[in-house]
Amino acid sequence: MKTLAVLGTLDTKGAEHAFIADFIRQRGHGVVLIDVGTSTPPTVTPDITREQVAAAADIDLATLIAHQDRGECVVAISKAAPILVAKLAAEGKIHGIISLGGGGGTAIGTAAMRGLPFGFPKIMVSTLASGNTAHYVGEKDITMIPSIADVAGLNRITRTIFTRAAGALCGMVEAEIPVPENDRQLIAASMFGNTTQCVDHAREIIDAAGYETLVFHSTGTGGKTMESLIADGLITGVLDITTTEWADELVGGTLTAGPTRLDATAKAGIPAIVVPGCLDMVNFGARETVPDKFNGRNFYIHNPQVTLMRTSAEECAELGKILAEKVNSYTAPVTVIIPLKAISIISAKGQPFHDPEADHALFTSLKENLTPSIPVIEMDTSINDPAFSKACAETLLNHLKPQ
Fold it and tell me: Which of 48, 222, 351, 389 lies in the 20 to 30 Å Cα band around 135?
């Protein structure tokens, strides 16, 4: 038997969450009913009250409620809920979580779920699940299910959705995750279409050495997810070949991973290889979506939905400085490896993004701003040359050896 958390605003959606809880009990599992409502008293009796939730973050909920500012209350309970559920999970008191909600309920429920580790079963039934859910899911493995009808009462539609959702959560916690015969240590690698050959070859070498490589697509979400798993302590070493998301963060493209990209490796204190892969490009949508301020720049139509813009020498100089500052904070062995002939397929000689001046600005700034003790390997190859990928893999493997 497992114990599942049913978390929700029990003032406005008590009956709906009670329905979920009853189904879970009928399946033979225990329930911890958690109230995160902030208006009227709960309509069903919770196992953990809203005051207990707020206390997890030292928040005086009664005072906030007295102010009658719903927004402040939602923000406060969203801050406290992750702390509470993370503690319950760490103590083995809950093994899965489910919540139902509209706007406020979804914000609170998913905030709680984002505080839980990878692999912990998380289901959010939401009126918002059919739209852009990126800011609710973040980098976590949250399953969002559209509620179809509003989460407002029990009827033939909501009973069906709620039952299926509760059944899905029960199935998640009942499923035994197979344990691999060889529990190999994990290496994280960043990849783009323009660096696929490099990462694939490096992965073969690393996996042959007894590790297991997880490859993340550097699309913003991919970089954030990689950072999240590193922060969770699941990763042993990092092959950060494709740091392109920093170009989008600096210039204003669509695939930024935010200003903390590369920070998790430093905090985790694990070995890494860092390459300025694909810093020659900024990503936008269809050509007509590119902001007018970039008119006159060098563009490459990757496909009808993706337009790439070449970074300028000035932008590259700033990117080199940013990358160096990030790497300077690393405490475990790290090496910067530079492919002098091309940092992407399309920056090679004869290709549309070939720009020796911009590349020189990038490489010079990177080297000048790096701490002198950090090794830099410059190779007269393109990024996808087998010799380059071999150097990346073998250098990381050397860093992973006991020092």
Answer: 48
